[in-house]
Amino acid sequence: MNKQKLFVITLIVIFALIALAGCGQKEATENGDNSTGTSADKIYIGWVAPLTGACANDGQQMQNGAQLAVNEINAAGGINGKQVELVCQDDKSDPKEAANIATKFVSDDRLVAVLGNYNSSCVLSGAPIYNEAKIPMVHVGTSPVITTEHGPYLFRISVTDAFQGEFVTKWLFEEGNKKPAILYENSDYGRGLMDTVEKQVASLGGTVADKETYELGQTKDFTGLLTKIKASGADSIFICGLYTEGALIAKQMQGLGISLPLFGTDGLYEQSLIDLAGQAAEGMKVSGLLLPSDPDQKIQDFVKNYQGAYGKVPGTYATFDYDAMNLLAQVITAAGADRQKIMDYLAKMPEAFVGVSGQVTFDENNDAVRTAMKKLTVKDGKWQIAE
């Protein structure tokens, strides 16, 4: 009897394992996680940016912008009759995680291109992997270092910090400030922007009164750094960082009675900065491409559709990923859903792409060529064109 029971139990276990294996194979096939390559009726695009951690808000905006573009493309019939699907990953603003995801993406035969990353350090960690595998990537990293290190298969749709740093530093001098202090994020992004600003200040005949650094997502108390800056005799502060720290700096300056004018680039240009800093953000000056109140019909349509889908006003990086996805759609329509053909087309675009963030072509370094930035300031609790 015991042997019979054991035999029956063994059979049940065997059949259960076979059934589970079958379910696993079916799930893998339905999810597209098989080794047969691109689905016959879909075009797959990888997407990677931070959805958790210090830059999660920016990453979520990027995902929203890309997905909005995909939804509109699919509603209009897709690309050459094929629907588009994003394969999304969270790099957590961690260069190591970004490299792991790059390795995963390049081995996924379904993917014809990738959108991402947000942090420059993440772009730089993934770049060698994408280049070796020859898969094109359109990213929004802004560090000047990327220009020489990102290789032939990466394309930057955002504006470089070299361009923005010079643009805003000239503006700072036009406002009568010649002795700024620099507060910079200790990252590839922050250090690269700091270097640009420091060089531009020197070229304009000014002096950097003080330089202080902080850690992204970790530094919360800036009072010690701000006290040093106050004692340095600085006439202004250039923040080489992102909006969360920018808001903390503005609020803590107000608490210390420091009234120096604040300048920065589009890393500060978010509605969240005003929400976090409140009245302390008043008068802050930054560079930017998108102003939601701009009457341009393309901008108004995008703002309306984004708000309708996500209930929020889009920021700079939502716009960049929306444009990046539409750029890829234009390229794939013309060149086909092939990694090498996409790369070749992007490298030698026959005409400029016109998106919500403006007109874009790429130079010999695969950096976006843009003609101008907007001067923006916080006035009456809103981002407005600086007069």
From TrEMBL:
<dbReference type="InterPro" id="IPR000709">
    <property type="entry name" value="Leu_Ile_Val-bd"/>
</dbReference>
<dbReference type="InterPro" id="IPR051010">
    <property type="entry name" value="BCAA_transport"/>
</dbReference>
<keyword id="KW-0029">Amino-acid transport</keyword>
<dbReference type="Pfam" id="PF13458">
    <property type="entry name" value="Peripla_BP_6"/>
</dbReference>
<comment type="similarity">
    <text>Belongs to the leucine-binding protein family.</text>
</comment>
<dbReference type="InterPro" id="IPR028081">
    <property type="entry name" value="Leu-bd"/>
</dbReference>
<dbReference type="GO" id="GO:0006865">
    <property type="term" value="P:amino acid transport"/>
</dbReference>
<keyword id="KW-0813">Transport</keyword>
<feature type="domain" description="Leucine-binding protein">
    <location>
        <begin position="42"/>
        <end position="381"/>
    </location>
</feature>
<feature type="signal peptide">
    <location>
        <begin position="1"/>
        <end position="21"/>
    </location>
</feature>
<keyword id="KW-0732">Signal</keyword>
<dbReference type="InterPro" id="IPR028082">
    <property type="entry name" value="Peripla_BP_I"/>
</dbReference>
<protein>
    <recommendedName>
        <fullName>Leucine-binding protein domain-containing protein</fullName>
    </recommendedName>
</protein>
